[in-house]
Design goal:
alpha/beta; about 15% strand; EC 3.2.1.1; carbohydrate metabolism; GH13_cat_dom; Glyco_hydro_b
Length: about 575
């Protein structure tokens, strides 16, 4: 591996930014964000250093599930603009060095989709087998219901034919039947179409559900569910050589590795399924560590991450567009996180997650907020930001469910945060109020402040991009040191190596480190150069160093050997 390889596998050290067009920027002042508005803000993303823009669903929709109830996989919802606007966005983003990926939501459709309208009209409809039907209602399994506050069963009777259709999500989102080759062909057409438009890949929604029916039909042309994912990856690679599939796979690590295409779990194959997977396991342990002010759960999880194929990557995050799920924690662990960050039942969702953003969970403590984002960007993998994180936006709990964190972007301190000039009643969602509202948290003010969170995140992005070892390291080395509150880890790739220290407690500490491979040579001592501050120290003749960390402190330390030609 050499530095030139980072241009081929661009996603291994990308900076991904997820946004909902509907709540980002309204340019025609109808109260709904739109593609022309996003286009006007593309330079904000470029200034931030974003290299990959992830668009939440923009397809025609009934909008009963914030755009995930799709009525046409090949269109653009007219509220947001048209296909020409999307092409203009993709092209302009590319000019700014930003690739665009889009949500691929093919686990289900809206019940208003023409396929389902036909399917429910008659058992003889040519689209009947596009969905999953049962002449009698199967036994209810409460654990199979994804949204237990809205649904009690995953089966609903359709009055027209008297049969039951399956919907793992809402009843207005019937599941597609991927056991049907015709459905798989349609999915391939969707992927091919948007690749031709110019997108650089897809975030694949609910992957395990999406594959659940594949290969279940006798005589099917797919022998194993994962074969379809492999064929989809192969098709996309043929059409667009460097496009990606980033999957939502909230499963334990031993099951996640299969979705990379590592069937024998040896980590040596060149992954031929998902290119990237969001690391839900690590995210949940991060919040447990923050709640306890103990880096142990995080360190243990990092050390247990399986080796993955060379052409694969973990996507790391501290917030996403859904509830902040804690379903992989034990009941007692989840209770700890709830007590620390969401003690009010209204802050919780589905009994398994939180509907809050990080700054409010941390009571707005700027030291702690910056420490967490420093940690995010230093973790081995590709960081993913949810819009507004760069300025420290909060949530609005007056919004329903997951929409609490999908509030309008806060551009200025003016009306509606500069999102729209429409009347409040017409806005796509309620603006955040109180200390995290636009009067106190907005892009315009932070752009002009060298001490703002926005400026800090810009620095993290730049340093991350200059440190390919953070994205490319095959394994993370957890460094031994005596403080439970400190995570000390090291990432090494090629001739580059960086040590990151993060203090999860409010107490100042001195962290002793032992780096036995960093002994001085005849050419001089090995130095630890702080990438986030104007500081450096020499490693002792025995490979030791002592480093100060303030409360909630953080340091990125590049190991610089004599004669190194890397810029610092």
């Amino acid at each position: 591996m050499r530095i030139r390889d980072t241009g081929d596998l661009w996603w291994k050290n990308a900076v991904v930014y997820c946004l909902d067009i509907e709540t980002y920027q309204d340019w025609n002042d109808d109260g709904i964000g739109d593609l022309p508005g996003l286009l006007q803000r593309i330079d904000h993303l470029a200034d931030l250093g974003v290299t990959c823009l992830w668009l939440m669903p923009f397809y025609p929709t009934v909008d009963r599930d914030d755009g995930y109830d799709i009525t046409d996989f090949f269109g653009v919802d007219p509220r947001l603009g048209d296909a020409g606007d999307l092409v203009a966005l993709v092209r302009t983003a590319r000019d700014r060095g930003i690739r665009v990926i889009v949500d691929l939501v093919v686990n289900h459709t809206s019940d208003r989709h023409p396929w389902f309208r036909s399917a429910r009209s008659s058992v003889d409809s040519p689209f009947r087998d596009y969905y999953v039907w049962s002449p009698t209602k199967p036994p209810d399994d409460p654990s199979a219901v994804v949204f237990p506050d809205q649904e009690t069963s995953i089966w609903t009777r359709d009055d027209k034919t008297g049969e039951y259709y399956r919907h793992r999500f809402y009843k207005h989102q019937p599941d597609l039947n991927t056991a049907n080759p015709a459905v798989r062909d349609q999915i391939v057409k969707v992927v091919g179409y948007w690749a031709e438009v110019g997108v650089s890949g897809f975030r694949v929604d609910a992957v395990p559900f999406f594959l659940a029916d594949t290969a279940k039909t006798e005589g099917d042309d797919v022998d194993h569910p994962h074969d379809f994912l492999k064929s989809l990856r192969s098709f996309l690679t043929r059409r667009t050589g460097d496009a990606i599939l980033m999957g939502e796979v909230n499963l334990p690590y031993d099951q996640q590795r299969q979705f990379f295409g590592d069937d024998d779990a040896d980590g040596t194959s060149d992954g031929d399924e998902l290119t990237m997977q969001l690391d839900f396991v690590l995210m949940q342990q991060l919040y447990l560590s923050l709640a306890r002010q103990d880096a142990g759960p995080l360190a243990t999880t990092l050390a247990s991450r399986p080796t993955i194929p060379r052409d694969a990557q973990w996507a790391t995050f501290v917030r996403n567009h859904d509830e902040l799920t804690l379903d992989k924690l034990s009941d007692d662990e989840r209770a700890e996180v709830f007590a620390a960050f969401g003690p009010d039942p209204d802050m919780q969702l589905y009994g398994r997650g939180l509907r809050r953003r990080l700054p409010t969970m941390l009571d707005g403590d700027p030291r702690r907020i910056r420490m967490v984002y420093s940690l995010l960007f230093s973790l081995p993998g590709t960081p993913v930001l949810f819009y507004g994180e760069e300025i420290g936006m909060g949530e609005n709990l007056a919004a329903e469910g997951r929409l609490a964190v999908r509030t309008p972007m806060q551009w200025t301190s003016g009306q509606h945060g500069g999102f729209s000039r429409a009347r409040r009643s017409r806005l796509a969602g309620p603006v955040v109020e109180g200390p995290f509202g636009p009067a106190h948290v907005n892009v315009a003010d932070q752009r002009r402040s060298p001490d703002s969170l926005l400026t800090f995140v810009q620095t993290l992005v730049r340093r991350y991009r200059e440190s390919p070892e953070l994205g490319w390291a095959e394994d993370v080395e957890i460094l031994s040191q005596p403080h439970a509150a400190v995570l000390a880890h090291r990432s090494t790739w090629d001739d580059a190596s960086t040590v990151a220290l993060h203090n999860l407690s409010p107490d100042a500490l001195v962290v002793p480190l032992s780096l036995p491979d960093c002994l001085p040579s005849d050419d001089g001592a090995v130095t630890l150069v702080d990438l986030l501050a104007d500081d450096a120290c020499e490693i002792g003749p025995d490979g030791s160093a002592e480093l100060e960390l303030p409360g909630y402190g953080y340091r990125w330390l590049r190991i610089r050997r004599p004669g190194s030609r890397r810029l610092l």
